[in-house]
Amino acid sequence: MPTVDDDLPSGLGPEEFSAQIFGTSGPRTGAGLELAPFRGVRFVPEVAGDPASVTMPPYDLIDEAAALRLLAGGGHNIVRLNLPRAAGEGYEAAGERLRRWLDEGALAIDPDPALYVYEAARGGTVLQRGLIGALGLRPEADGVVLPHENVFPGPVRDRLALMTAANANLEPIFLVYEGGGDTARIVDDAASRAPLVEFDADDGLTHRLWRITDPVSHARVATDLRDKQALIADGHHRYATYRALQARHHAAGDGPGPWDTGLALLVDSTRYPPHLGAIHRVLPGLPPDDAVGKARKVFRVTDFLDEGSAVEALANAKGPTFLLGGGDTFHLLSEPDEDALARCMPSEHSPRWRRLHTAVLDHLLIEHVWDIPENENAIEVVHDDPSAAVARARRAGGTAVVLNPLKVADVLAVAGKGERVPRKSTSFGPKPRTGLVLRLLDPDTAERP
Hints:
Elements: H1 14-22, E1 35-36, E2 41-43, H2 45-48, H3 51-54, H4 64-73, H5 79-82, H6 91-104, E3 107-109, E4 115-122, E5 125-136, E6 145-146, H7 153-166, E7 168-169, E8 173-177, H8 182-190, E9 197-200, E10 206-212, H9 215-225, E11 230-234, H10 236-251, E12 261-268, E13 275-277, E14 279-283, H11 288-295, E15 300-304, H12 307-315, E16 322-325, E17 330-334, H13 338-344, H14 351-354, H15 357-369, E18 380-383, H16 386-396, E19 399-402, H17 408-416, E20 427-429, E21 439-440
Parallel strand pairs: 6-11, 8-12
Antiparallel strand pairs: 1-5, 2-3, 4-5, 4-10, 5-12, 7-21, 8-11, 9-10, 13-20, 14-18, 14-19, 15-17, 16-17, 16-19
Helix pairs in contact: 6-7, 7-10
């Protein structure tokens, strides 16, 4: 078996790496959107404990402090599998722990292949409802599963090492599609019955899970989805990992198998529109005074003494606008210099792409004004919460860049033309809870008693 580094392209920037890993130039398969049933792996509450104590948000939303809280809260929390390094363990230890939990009965394999309906609600309002299954992996040339963000090699290598050691998909990626057809009726019909799992989590949401084992319903879903197209809302690095694992097995001559699909939640955006939030940046190596001083050369800068007024001004701003925090005051950057934009923004991209907030941030501010390398060590991210980004920047003595969220129409338009928004541009939600259902990649799982 080759090592992780042996079978991933190296020495490439995020755009080139993304093109290769998503398979932009790969042959068309002719297959449509597929979400197949599988035998899910689920925690057994009588052994593992309350589902609220063993599940977690997606791995990339968990910082070190949150990981430590999860580790302290329960011996069977999925964080021990999905982020083994938080517990001071390696990938192989996570794989061994997964198999041990199966042997001990903390995890169990469902007896029949199923599609799973997942719901997240707050009070009496359903925020998210969709179908979890095994997503058919398609080259981007097929135009069936559309990525809209570039990915970096580091996180893909990390997830590939873990997925290989565990021989499992430990959490679903999140996709949206324009449905309104038979699948939507099947999903809502399943959700009208008593759930298989229901619990309130510390995220303020009630999470529910149902199981659909009827082969007739599976066939109806397959027929309804065949001509549809899905956008990756969350999980680009994990989808890239699915594709890398698929390529590895095909290169080894393994032929068709469970590596040709990946665990995914598919949500009908016409019935349950996703929330699109911002992903803020924290630049720990850039002092706030330096950031503001250099930015004044190409932006209009407005100073604010309190965070509330500054965030409100950002929300009401038009065009590429950013809020800098980390020091004692806040600084709104607006009206970027058009000549500077013309010099810095990549000409090969569409005009719509070149006006995206995150594109202007990456190319004008981070690359040219601040001269910061584009990698996950120099640039940290915080989803949705401006105060959390500012607090993290203050602890590090660095700068927080608070952004407005992109518009869904812009994301769809950019993806539809074969472009990708810059990395970490979108935070679609609510994201599926990790640990509700897992998927083994053992070809013999379907035959196990």
